[in-house]
Hints:
There is one protein chain. By secondary structure, the protein is α+β, with helices and mostly antiparallel strands. It has helices spanning 2-17, 26-36, 38-53, 56-59, 113-179, and strands at residues 64-81, 87-105. The chain has a domain at 20-62 and 108-179. It is built from 5 helices and 2 strands, in the order H-H-H-H-E-E-H. Strands 1-2 form a two-stranded antiparallel sheet. It is elongated, with a radius of gyration of 40 Å.
Amino acid sequence: MKRNFILLVLLYSIMFQTRAQEVLTLEDALKTTLSNNFNILLARNDNNIDVENTSLGSAGMLPAVTGTFNRSNSIQNSRQVRADGQIQQISNAKNDNMSYGVNLNWTIFDGLGMFARRDRFKEIQRQGEAEIKYQVITQLSEVMATYYNLVQQKRLINALDTTIALSRYRVTLAENRLEI
């Protein structure tokens, strides 16, 4: 009795823990492709770079401010002999030097070159958006074609299984006729 109870409990625990593999729908496959495909992710990253490059500063329309700061320290030992024979010697002489500055450059007019650069950056951004659309359409069409190919293969397998079952039935009928 105990043994039967333990076997029954183990059987129920195994039944509740095992799960069948979930059926992949076309929508799930497309969502996974959109979120995990590297070609699409790379196209989106490139487009983000293009969006950042399409700015007034990248086109050269804004002033450029640069700053510099330099600091150097040195310790020197020096020995100097003068013309009158006197020796001057300094040990561990420290030298501190610091320089800094700010520079502002602004091109007021460069023959409309800055406007041409800005238009070029905008066109590159539009090309990046078109590349994203191309990658999305290409990858989704490949996933759909593969999915429907698998569905077709599964239906073909089911049809072949039915054909085999019918053939076995015919063989059984033929054997029965032969015996009769």
